[in-house]
User: Fold these one by one.
Assistant:
Number 1:
Amino acid sequence: MAKFSTVLIGGGTGFVGSHLAEGFRNVASKVLVISRMPGVGRISWNDLQQKGLPEETEVIVNVAGQNVLDPMRRWTPGFRQNVVSSRVLTTKTLAEAIEKSAKPPKVFITMSGVGYYPPNETAEYNEESKPAASDFFSKLCHDWENSGNLSDQTPTRRVIIRSGVVLGSEGGIIQRVYIPFFLGLGGPIGSGNQFFPWIHIDDLVNMFLFAASNEKVVGVLNGVAPQVVTNKEFSKALGSAMFRPSFMPLPEKVIELAFGKERASMMTEGQKVVPKRVLDYGFNYKFPDIESACKNIVN
Ligand SMILES: NC(=O)c1ccc[n+]([C@@H]2O[C@H](COP(=O)([O-])OP(=O)(O)OC[C@H]3O[C@@H](n4cnc5c(N)ncnc54)[C@H](OP(=O)(O)O)[C@@H]3O)[C@@H](O)[C@H]2O)c1
């Protein structure tokens, strides 16, 4: 029997969102996706604003957001604005629809990123760390998270998942680096010593399902694996899973030329992020270490 009636997923057409839709289909009687493009099982952001939440919506998830690392888009003020509004305005639209609903959903889970924590070579961040927003990406994550705030009178449980780099074969970083690694041209970015917070797509989906089903879960969860690795260690694990060398470093300057210095910092810098609250709640990872995650993805 389905656990939930209707589940609504903003950004459910993307890499993470389509995996979430698949995961929720096993536990819900209906999954609806909010998208800018019409299609079966979809509603538009405009429909949501005009008509409010679909009937019997019990779970709402939002992972919508313009791809920051789209190599075809220059890092212009207009594109930066699009990166912000595609996250902040969609989350805000959902929060407003929840506030207006006569029958608010049980739970509202929104995506955020580990970019919430400014890059640092020594600090260790868990969900209780409260660093000030000091760069574009940490400010973006603060605004993204705050845009989903609900009033104290609203009974909906609110959860935020601050995700690390999501590893899966159909999208994200693996799709971008697969061919260079396959050709034996893979390797770390810059020094490779920067931290690389990561999570396997199955664990991220399971974390959303866990948060939806477990009424005790509230507030922020760091969507990262418990094993902290550097960019160099990730490259080594991926190369070894693909039986390829991974010694070819990609110079920082090349990334900066291609993406602009600010955007390149997402790859050339990193933060050490640990999932303290996730483990305290008793969540079990399928892929807690980078070797098993990489092997599963490329085989
Ligand atoms: N992949 C990762 O490693 C990773 C790590 C941490 C956080 N995240 C966050 O997780 C979210 C999903 O990532 P993803 O890898 O699944 O991205 P993706 O494959 O590019 O999917 C993005 C989704 O957002 C929607 N979208 C894109 N531009 C939009 C816009 N301007 N306005 C409204 N909706 C828009 C798209 O929906 P339609 O085109 O159907 O409207 C699509 O479903 C993003 O917010 C990303 O920042 C991802």
Number 2:
Amino acid sequence: MKLYYADTTVAIALIIALKEAKLPCDLVRVDFAAGEQTRPEFLAINPKGRVPALVTKQGILTETGALLDYIHALAPEAGLVPDDPFQAAKMRELMYYLASTWHVNHAHKGHGERWADKKESHEDMRLKAPETMRACCAYIEENLLKGPFLLGDRFSLADAYLYVVSGWLKGDGVDVSDYPKLAAFRTEMEKRPSVLAVLSENMM
Ligand SMILES: N[C@@H](CCC(=O)N[C@@H](CS)C(=O)NCC(=O)O)C(=O)O
């Protein structure tokens, strides 16, 4: 398998999950600063011009949540998804929320051009981002995160996802220490070899 990723992006959640699952995968760094994600060579891999994209023997897969589940399906022995249907759905509840709400709110800070053409509209969206990101943090802190991991003591796919996207909070103007469970979750994640590996490789 070959994973296309860029530093600090949501694709790093896949690298953490691959390490947790002990699955081999070639990593291909896409240079966002050079605009590689917009070039025809990359658009042939992912027409959305986004990472992650995973090349498998059967074809190409995109979308973080789908890829995380694929990693679990390839290595069920790693136990990255709970067997209990309710717990598994609780895990996916956070994953869908991160994809549909957290990531989209975050993108309003630096990618206003996706939603509006006027410069003042972009500025308005940028200014709103700290508020919407704080609302996301409060929702997760108060309703979803059991601690130390999402589901309590057991690590699951959603933790890799939450760790990476909560790494963007500082840049979004949000102080994670305002959310004690989220801050403790990040500290706990930073004890795991998978996370220490991506940190030591300066991917985050
Ligand atoms: N819904 C996609 C979103 C992927 C996405 O937006 N990735 C960002 C990085 S976090 C990206 O590739 N952006 C391209 C760009 O900024 O040009 C997923 O969850 O995988």
